[in-house]
Design goal:
By secondary structure, the chain is an alpha/beta fold. The protein is built from eleven helices and 13 strands.
């Protein structure tokens, strides 16, 4: 029988150098996307998919993350005294969201290493990994779909997105075979950040994974790969070969809305897109935006 998955792991130890100086003294995961820190969207997504046990893999300079998901007695008392229940609710949202746990990565040896740091917490059970740079629109529940696919196939599941060949070098790229489901492919190979000419396809691995616990043993012996880092992609490559009978790797091809907050331009787009969709901001922002862009000279 398949085991119900309850744990989500979110690597959040990166230095966020692409956002300096904003991230000099503040974790990049705390950058606001409209009015919520990016990390809160990701934790909410895990909880929406039924995973309320969340482990953040953090590092130095990341105390703000723990504080964000903890009580803040003084502020709560002040808001209560004022009777400002709307703001109090906003403060409490992140506190009551999930059962949060933390482990530090120590040396920044790569994504594979960060995932390996979750071993003690996760134990011998399948689990999900969510990367903080990707925000998946709550209306397009990708992780829920991936968990269902894991239950069906008892295999490792990755999320794949068709990208422009010009940007495949930013991702892990998958070699795939079709299955009887048009949204699901079998992953036969993976290459971390290939140039367009050697990429096996333009299907990019995006930051959602459902992993079998066997991945820990593999990561433990995975040598540093691309960029001198221990790559999750390399361990998944071994899972895809299915030598030890762990079910192989399948990809759910995502066709929904995804917002990348990993670099400045994409981050700005994400903020605008999500704000336009909000009932409290969209009605005023949309006409303003429409007028603003008419002044652009795009030649
Ligand atoms: C990581 C993975 C890569 C994956 C990407 C998704 O890279 O190594 O395979 O495609 O996340 O966002 P990073 O973006 O951390 O460099």
């Amino acid at each position: 029988m398949t085991q119900r998955i309850t744990k989500a792991v979110i690597p959040a130890a990166g230095l966020g150098t692409r956002f300096l100086p904003a991230t000099k003294a503040m974790p990049k995961e705390m950058l606001p996307v409209v009015d919520k820190p990016a990390i809160q969207y990701v934790v909410e997504e895990a909880v929406d998919a039924g995973l309320s046990d969340v482990l953040l893999v953090t590092g130095r300079n990341k105390n703000a993350l723990e504080n964000h998901f903890d009580r803040v007695a003084e502020l709560e008392a002040t808001l209560e005294r004022k009777g400002d229940t709307a703001k109090l609710e906003k403060v409490n949202e992140s506190t009551e969201l999930a059962d949060m746990h933390y482990v530090r990565q120590g040396d920044p040896l790569g994504l594979g290493h960060a995932v390996l740091r979750a071993r003690m917490h996760v134990g011998d059970h399948p689990f999900a990994v969510l990367l903080g740079d990707d925000i998946i629109d709550a209306r397009d529940p990708l992780l829920t779909r991936m968990l269902a696919e894991h239950d069906r196939r008892e295999a490792t599941i990755v999320a794949l997105l068709e990208v422009d060949p010009d940007s495949i070098h930013l991702y892990g790229a998958a070699a795939v075979e079709p299955t009887d489901d048009p949204d699901v492919v079998r992953v036969t190979g993976l290459v971390e950040k290939p140039t367009a000419d050697v990429a096996p396809s333009n299907l990019a691995v995006i930051g959602r994974y459902v992993l079998r616990p066997e991945v820990f043993d593999i990561l433990d012996r995975t040598e540093p790969g691309k960029g001198g880092e221990i790559q999750l992609t390399d361990a998944l490559m071994e899972m895809a070969a299915d030598i030890e009978g762990t079910g192989g790797v399948y990809g759910v091809v995502f066709r929904g809305r995804r917002y990348d907050t990993g670099d400045k331009l994409d981050y700005i787009k994400a903020v605008v897109q999500l704000a336009v969709d909000r009932d409290d901001l969209g009605p005023e922002l949309k006409p303003w935006l429409a007028e603003y862009v008419t002044g652009f000279d795009l030649d």
